[in-house]
Amino acid sequence: MIRGVRGATTVNSNDAKEILTNTKLLVEDIIKTNEINPDDVASVLISVTPDINATFPAKPIRELEGWTYVPVMCMQEIAVPGSLEKCIRVMMTINTSKSQPEINHVYHYNAKKLRPDLVK
């Protein structure tokens, strides 16, 4: 079965180091809580709000052991008025035997406001 695993985090400023650090922490948490093997990952899509452009948040994912060949793409999120600022969203498409309710979606920092129903 192919499933999507969602995650999101925020940063305090458009700072490359903070963007890379927070993205890495988020993805590592997604991997750990869902027991994801890079060979089971079809792709990872990362979107950022328009106020984030200091670096590509995909960089720390490509540096994880075993993740060199996993397709990762960055894009800009839709600029909806009043939406959460300085937000990095991740959609990881994986092969898994887990059911939808068994998937652990991960939200860090202010991104917990996006899906409070999924925050564990």
TrEMBL record:
It is an enzyme of class 5 (isomerase). It catalyses: chorismate = prephenate. Prephenate binds at R6, R89, Y107. Keywords: Amino-acid biosynthesis, Aromatic amino acid biosynthesis, Isomerase. Its EC number is 5.4.99.5. The keyword Phosphoprotein does not apply. CDD domains: AroH. The keyword Isomerase applies. GO terms for molecular function: chorismate mutase activity. InterPro entries: Chorismate_mutase_AroH (IPR008243), RutC-like_sf (IPR035959). Pfam families: CM_1. GO terms for biological process: amino acid biosynthetic process; aromatic amino acid family biosynthetic process; chorismate metabolic process. PANTHER family: CHORISMATE MUTASE (PTHR21164), CHORISMATE MUTASE AROH (PTHR21164:SF0). This is chorismate mutase. The lineage of its organism: Bacteria, Bacillati, Bacillota, Bacilli, Bacillales. The gene is aroH.
